[in-house]
Design brief:
Layout lengths: L4 E5 L20 E2 L2 E2 H11 L4 E6 L4 H6 L4 H9 L3 H11 L3 E6 L6 H6 L2 H4 L4 E4 L3 E4 L4 H12 L3 E6 L9 E9 L2 E9 L11 E9 L3 H5 L12 H12 L1 E4 L4 E4 L3 H12 L6 H12 L4
Parallel strand pairs: 1-4, 1-6, 4-5, 8-12
Antiparallel strand pairs: 2-3, 6-11, 7-13, 8-11, 9-10, 10-12
């Protein structure tokens, strides 16, 4: 079955990048000239997604405003002869059919995904984590959708993480299937001892799930951080029927992390047609001599 729907959890408080996120949702932090959330929506659209649900909470209205029409701005751009910029702004409001629902209590990623139950219905759906911008020629979500259509099982986007960091992430029991594809038969969230580490592959940023995950989530008890963890629900799915792991191509940027934000800005800036030459000159003349 083709994956047509996507859920983007964007209800987190962004505490790792305070004070910037005291008044601005972390998903609206810019990467050069586009907010992080737009890159995520564009990835979903490029992957064939038709309907998107963004999970928000109080204080996230700028997200909704960004993907809406702005008549006053559009009129000003037209009257100023800025046709190309006008068309770019209008295109943002037409990217996809985007809906919103509020997660009234921050009870974890699993609870946020559960808020999408009525939106999803009985279809498979992609989850694009709101903290993760993944840039590459082949959209990461598209890679996962192809795996779902091939195997008919839940799919997680996976990457190997440094051994010393595995306790911050999930750990997966995997076996190779074909190039960059693995069968996943078990997982655990934030392993705290070496004995709990199944491998150094972790779920990073993207999953595609069957609708049956909602029944599992409704019976999932709070786990790490006393929150309903999506990983705990996917573990049950793994044990019942297995999942597929896709070691996706592309570069992932953690937009809930100060260093991740800086890396994204520099990498995008180095290829951005308006600023790349100036940025390269600045890095060579001002930064390299200080290293």
């Amino acid at each position: 079955m083709k994956v047509r729907k996507a859920v983007i959890p964007a209800a987190g408080l962004g505490t790792r990048v305070l004070p910037a996120t005291k008044s601005i949702p972390k998903e609206m932090l810019p990467i050069v000239d586009k907010p992080a959330i737009q890159y995520i929506v564009e990835e979903a659209v490029a992957s064939g997604i038709e309907d998107i649900l963004i999970i928000t909470n109080r204080g996230k209205s700028p997200l909704e405003d960004h993907f809406d029409h702005t008549p006053e701005l559009e009129e000003r751009l037209l009257s100023s002869g800025k046709q190309a910029l006008y068309e770019e702004m209008v295109a943002i409001s037409k990217l996809a059919n985007i809906q919103y629902v509020r997660q009234k209590e921050t009870k974890g990623l699993g609870h946020a995904v559960l808020c999408a139950k009525s939106f999803v219905g009985n279809e498979p759906f992609a989850v694009l984590y709101g903290d993760d911008v993944i840039l590459g020629k082949d959209p990461a979500t598209a890679q996962l959708c192809r795996a779902y259509e091939q195997y008919g099982l839940g799919v997680c986007g996976i990457k190997e993480v440094p051994h010393e960091d595995i306790q911050k992430y999930s750990t997966l029991k995997v076996s190779p299937l074909q190039e960059r594809l693995y069968k996943v038969t078990d997982m655990a969230e934030k392993p705290q001892t070496p004995q709990e580490v199944l491998s150094y592959f972790s779920i990073l940023g993207r999953v595609v799930l069957p609708a049956k995950i909602f029944d599992i989530l409704e019976n999932t008890k709070p786990g790490a951080g006393n929150e309903i963890q999506l990983t705990d629900a996917m573990k049950e799915l793994c044990l019942k029927e297995g999942m597929i792991g896709v070691d996706y191509t592309g570069t992932r940027y953690d937009m809930g992390n100060k260093l991740g934000i800086l890396k994204a800005i520099i990498d995008v800036g180095l290829v951005h047609p308006e600023v790349k030459d100036g940025l390269k000159a600045y890095l060579k003349e001002e930064i390299l001599p200080k290293l």
